[in-house]
Amino acid sequence: MIVLGLTGSIGMGKSTTAGMFREAGVPVHDSDETVHRLYSGIAAPLIEARFPGTVVDGKVDRDRLAAAVLGKPEALRELEKIVHPLVRADADAFLARHREAGAPLALLDIPLLFETGGEDRVDRIVVVTAPAEIQRERVLARPGMTKDKFEAILARQVPDAQKRARADFVIDTGKGMEAARQAVHAIVAELTGDSAG
Question: TM segments (predicted)?
Fold first, then answer.
């Protein structure tokens, strides 16, 4: 089974692209979705213990947690030490299930793939990209997003040009949905040897 890693900076269209791989029949493990699940499950008491007042009704309150870690590199590192191993264990279990089922290809959607040294966990890497002005427009349109928040997030991410240089495949989501979908199908066909894909 080939393990494909999907990554890209904020606002580049990664979630949409992951959905296209799913539509093409590729099993997708979504790190963000996993974190969401962990925040209302096993991660909640661990996070509350380290960041008191961030859990409400048994679930991590993302706004409270953001307030506790944003702009505080040490706090952020501590949060990552709690969350990353849990997400990784979940992803490993996902891969084991699909390997067992005989899937030819599985995708790990990892927002911070390069930032967390995730290259070792995947066979090939897909980077989604878009022109900077499109990225900015998409991100600033998100509820609760500010220019300062956007800049803080960008500062923590490996620059887009470096990501593209380290990728096996690059999908430019600035060219529209149809072009992105065609690129996804081409990648799936290349990796599975299925030209009908």
Answer: none
Range(s) of the domain holding residue 7: 1-27+104-197
Give the tokens for residue 55: 């859990």
62 and 4 housed in the same domain: no
* Same-domain status, 48 and 138: no
DSSP 8-state symbol, 197 = -
The verdict on whether residue 81 carries a ligand-binding annotation is no
Q: In this structure, what token pair is assigned to residue 3?
A: 């393990």
With a CB cutoff of 8 Å and minimum separation 6, the contacts of 68 are: 51, 53, 54, 75
Tell me, rounded to whole angstroms, the distance of Cα 53 from its chain centroid: 27
Residues 46, 91 within the same domain: yes
Kindly report the length of the chain.
197
Q: What are phi and psi of 40, to 5 degrees?
A: -110, 15
Q: How many domains does the chain have?
A: 2
Q: For residue 12, give the nearest of 156, 110, 127, 150 by alpha carbon.
A: 127
| Residue 9 is labelled as binding a ligand | no
Q: Taking a C-beta distance cutoff of 8 angstroms, is the pair 17, 25 a contact? A: no
Q: Are residues 120 and 161 in the same domain?
A: yes
Q: Is 13 annotated as a binding residue?
A: yes
Q: Quick: pLDDT tens for 108-135.
A: 999 889 988 889 999 999 999 999 999 9
